[in-house]
Amino acid sequence: MITMNMTFLYLGLVGLFLVLFSVFKIRKKIKYERNGIKTSATVIAVEEVVNIRRMERRFYPVVKFMLRNGDWFKGKYSDGSLPASYKIGDNVDIVYIEEKPEAYIITQQNWKSLIFLVIGLVLLGYCAVSYFIK
Protein backbone atom coordinates (compact mmCIF):
# COMPACT_ATOMS: atom_id res chain seq x y z
CA MET A 1 0.00 0.00 0.00
CA ILE A 2 1.37 3.37 -1.00
CA THR A 3 0.88 6.02 1.65
CA MET A 4 0.63 9.76 1.09
CA ASN A 5 4.15 10.23 2.49
CA MET A 6 5.54 7.76 -0.05
CA THR A 7 3.75 9.60 -2.85
CA PHE A 8 5.36 12.87 -1.78
CA LEU A 9 8.71 11.12 -1.54
CA TYR A 10 8.39 9.74 -5.09
CA LEU A 11 7.25 13.08 -6.47
CA GLY A 12 10.09 14.82 -4.64
CA LEU A 13 12.65 12.38 -6.05
CA VAL A 14 11.31 12.85 -9.57
CA GLY A 15 11.43 16.62 -9.08
CA LEU A 16 14.98 16.43 -7.76
CA PHE A 17 16.06 14.27 -10.70
CA LEU A 18 14.50 16.73 -13.19
CA VAL A 19 16.21 19.70 -11.51
CA LEU A 20 19.62 18.00 -11.44
CA PHE A 21 19.25 16.81 -15.06
CA SER A 22 18.28 20.32 -16.19
CA VAL A 23 21.12 22.00 -14.30
CA PHE A 24 23.59 19.55 -15.88
CA LYS A 25 22.28 20.31 -19.38
CA ILE A 26 22.19 24.07 -18.81
CA ARG A 27 25.76 24.07 -17.43
CA LYS A 28 26.94 22.08 -20.44
CA LYS A 29 25.26 24.61 -22.76
CA ILE A 30 26.92 27.52 -20.96
CA LYS A 31 30.32 25.79 -21.14
CA TYR A 32 29.94 25.15 -24.85
CA GLU A 33 28.72 28.68 -25.56
CA ARG A 34 31.72 30.18 -23.72
CA ASN A 35 34.42 27.87 -25.08
CA GLY A 36 32.92 26.43 -28.26
CA ILE A 37 32.78 27.26 -31.91
CA LYS A 38 29.39 28.21 -33.33
CA THR A 39 28.47 27.07 -36.81
CA SER A 40 25.55 25.73 -38.78
CA ALA A 41 24.99 22.13 -39.75
CA THR A 42 22.71 20.23 -42.08
CA VAL A 43 20.71 17.19 -41.04
CA ILE A 44 21.75 14.49 -43.52
CA ALA A 45 19.92 11.55 -41.91
CA VAL A 46 17.63 10.66 -39.03
CA GLU A 47 18.43 7.36 -37.32
CA GLU A 48 15.71 5.44 -35.54
CA VAL A 49 16.97 3.49 -32.54
CA VAL A 50 14.67 0.92 -30.95
CA ASN A 51 15.43 -0.23 -27.43
CA ILE A 52 13.54 -3.48 -27.05
CA ARG A 53 14.44 -3.90 -23.39
CA ARG A 54 12.91 -0.53 -22.47
CA MET A 55 10.26 -0.77 -25.20
CA GLU A 56 10.97 2.66 -26.63
CA ARG A 57 12.21 4.20 -29.81
CA ARG A 58 14.03 7.47 -30.40
CA PHE A 59 15.09 9.42 -33.46
CA TYR A 60 18.60 10.86 -33.61
CA PRO A 61 19.60 13.47 -36.19
CA VAL A 62 22.86 12.90 -38.05
CA VAL A 63 24.44 16.20 -39.03
CA LYS A 64 27.28 17.34 -41.22
CA PHE A 65 29.21 20.54 -40.59
CA MET A 66 32.53 22.14 -41.47
CA LEU A 67 35.16 22.37 -38.77
CA ARG A 68 37.27 25.47 -38.28
CA ASN A 69 40.20 23.79 -40.11
CA GLY A 70 38.05 23.19 -43.22
CA ASP A 71 37.44 19.46 -42.69
CA TRP A 72 33.92 18.10 -42.75
CA PHE A 73 32.53 16.31 -39.71
CA LYS A 74 29.56 13.94 -39.75
CA GLY A 75 28.05 12.55 -36.55
CA LYS A 76 24.90 11.37 -34.79
CA TYR A 77 23.57 13.68 -32.10
CA SER A 78 23.61 12.26 -28.57
CA ASP A 79 20.04 13.31 -27.68
CA GLY A 80 17.18 11.56 -29.40
CA SER A 81 13.50 12.43 -29.41
CA LEU A 82 10.10 10.97 -30.13
CA PRO A 83 8.71 12.13 -32.46
CA ALA A 84 11.68 13.12 -34.58
CA SER A 85 12.61 16.76 -33.99
CA TYR A 86 14.37 17.22 -37.33
CA LYS A 87 13.94 16.23 -40.96
CA ILE A 88 16.61 15.50 -43.54
CA GLY A 89 17.73 18.79 -45.03
CA ASP A 90 17.01 20.91 -41.94
CA ASN A 91 19.66 23.49 -41.06
CA VAL A 92 20.51 23.68 -37.36
CA ASP A 93 22.79 25.90 -35.30
CA ILE A 94 25.36 23.97 -33.30
CA VAL A 95 28.25 24.61 -30.94
CA TYR A 96 31.23 22.27 -30.69
CA ILE A 97 34.49 22.12 -28.80
CA GLU A 98 37.42 22.16 -31.21
CA GLU A 99 39.17 19.19 -29.57
CA LYS A 100 35.98 17.10 -29.47
CA PRO A 101 33.61 17.92 -32.36
CA GLU A 102 31.64 14.68 -31.87
CA ALA A 103 30.24 16.13 -28.63
CA TYR A 104 28.45 19.02 -30.33
CA ILE A 105 25.17 20.46 -29.07
CA ILE A 106 22.24 21.69 -31.12
CA THR A 107 21.38 25.10 -29.72
CA GLN A 108 17.71 25.04 -30.75
CA GLN A 109 16.95 22.29 -28.19
CA ASN A 110 17.84 24.29 -25.09
CA TRP A 111 14.22 25.12 -24.22
CA LYS A 112 13.67 21.48 -23.20
CA SER A 113 16.06 21.85 -20.26
CA LEU A 114 14.16 24.88 -19.03
CA ILE A 115 10.85 23.02 -19.20
CA PHE A 116 12.30 20.11 -17.18
CA LEU A 117 13.73 22.60 -14.67
CA VAL A 118 10.35 24.29 -14.18
CA ILE A 119 8.53 20.96 -13.81
CA GLY A 120 11.13 19.74 -11.32
CA LEU A 121 10.89 22.92 -9.26
CA VAL A 122 7.09 22.75 -9.25
CA LEU A 123 7.20 19.13 -8.02
CA LEU A 124 9.73 19.96 -5.32
CA GLY A 125 7.74 23.00 -4.26
CA TYR A 126 4.50 21.01 -4.14
CA CYS A 127 6.12 18.31 -1.99
CA ALA A 128 7.70 20.86 0.36
CA VAL A 129 4.46 22.81 0.82
CA SER A 130 2.43 19.62 1.29
CA TYR A 131 4.92 18.33 3.87
CA PHE A 132 4.89 21.50 5.97
CA ILE A 133 1.13 22.10 5.75
CA LYS A 134 0.02 18.73 7.16
Q: Could you explain how this protein is built, in words?
A:
The chain has two helices and five strands; from the N terminus they run αβββββα. It is α+β, with helices and mostly antiparallel strands and 134 residues long. The protein has a single domain, classed as OB fold (Dihydrolipoamide Acetyltransferase, E2P) (Beta Barrel). Strands 3-2-1-4-5 form a five-stranded antiparallel beta sheet. Strand 4 and strand 5 form a beta hairpin. Helix 1 packs antiparallel against helix 2. 16% of the residues are buried. The model has no long low-confidence stretch (mean pLDDT 85).
Q: Any descriptors?
A:
five-stranded antiparallel beta sheet, elongated, 5 strands, 34% strand, 134 residues, OB fold (Dihydrolipoamide Acetyltransferase, E2P), 2 helices, alpha+beta
Secondary structure elements and their pairing?
Layout: H1 4-35, E1 37-51, E2 56-66, E3 72-76, E4 91-97, E5 100-106, H2 111-133
Antiparallel strand pairs: 1-2, 1-4, 2-3, 4-5
Helix pairs in contact: 1-2
- Strand line-up across the major sheet: 3-2-1-4-5
CATH superfamily: Nucleic acid-binding proteins
Number of beta-strand segments: 5
Count of folded domains: 1
- Unreliable parts: none
pLDDT average, as an integer?
Answer: 85
Q: What would CATH call the class?
A: Mainly Beta
- Largest sheet features: 5 strands, antiparallel
Helix content: 40-55%
Following the backbone from N to C, one meets helices and strands in this order, namely HEEEEEH
Distance between the termini: 20 Å
Strand content: 25-35%
